[in-house]
Specification:
single chain, 248 residues, alpha/beta, Rossmann fold, Arc Repressor Mutant, subunit A, eight-stranded mixed sheet, 11 helices, globular
């Protein structure tokens, strides 16, 4: 079996594919393909640890890594991985700005932001910029790996304890509460909101309601606008809070 081929560019690194004998050629049942991932962090030791965790833990193949925001943008744009693990604090730019630029260029990869910050303001900024997960570097390795798998599978994931913090932040914003009136939602938009609160992806919502994925996206956009929110996580937490209050 040929050795793993690597092409190195500065300040990013791209890992080319290996070509082992396939399970089908050995007469085995086909295995599920691992998610292709890119790691963006300005600390080489963390990049190495993250790569080892993701590949040895199973479910991921790290196809590239970058040590700066600009290099990360170029890498994610060219490789279009299934998952981008993105540090919030990068040497050349803020990770949230990098995420925002990534979304503006049309990259639809799942993005898990990883940080040491529990500040609700940082959490909200990441979600508004388009993050699919907000994870903590202090997490136990097995917990972090499980969270990354969930993000790659299409779920919105927050590190343990942060959902409550985000809910309090939203609830304490008086102006936003006044904008969150259910009377402006249509019956279909209420259904969409309930599905979001249940953690369903757009594809699952479309299948359950027997509508197209594109139609779901339009409804989600309208729900967020009417409620004065910026992300699905905020909408889900708000919906759950309203249920506890008995007003939804």
């Amino acid at each position: 079996m040929p050795a793993l081929q690597r092409q190195i560019t500065s300040p990013s690194r791209v890992y080319g594919p290996a070509w082992p004998v396939s399970g089908r050629e050995r007469g085995e049942a086909p295995a599920r393909m691992p998610a292709r991932a890119v790691v963006v962090d300005d600390h080489p030791l963390f990049r190495r640890a993250a790569r080892d965790l993701m590949e040895r833990g199973g479910g991921f193949r790290v196809v590239g890594e970058a040590g700066s925001g600009r290099a990360g943008l170029e890498l994610a744009s060219s490789l279009r991985p299934d998952l981008v693990l993105l540090d919030v604090r990068l040497g050349d730019m803020d990770g949230i700005d990098a995420l925002r630029r990534l979304r503006e260029t049309g990259v639809e990869s799942r993005v898990a932001v990883i940080t040491a910050s529990r500040d609700p303001a940082d959490l909200q900024a990441a979600l508004r910029a388009g993050a699919d997960g907000y994870l903590l570097k202090s997490a136990e390795p097995h917990a972090l790996l499980a969270q990354l798998r969930r993000v790659a599978a299409g779920q919105m994931v927050l590190a343990d304890g942060l959902a409550e913090s985000l809910a309090r932040s939203i609830r304490d914003d008086r102006g936003r509460r006044e904008a969150m009136e259910l009377t402006g939602l249509t019956a279909r938009e209420r259904q969409i909101l309930e599905c979001i609160a249940a953690g369903h992806s757009n594809l699952k919502i479309a299948a359950e309601l027997e509508i197209s994925d594109a139609t779901v996206k339009v409804h989600v956009k309208h729900v967020l606008k009417k409620l004065g929110l910026h992300s699905r996580v905020e909408a889900a937490l708000w919906c759950l809070d309203q249920r506890r209050r008995g007003s939804f």
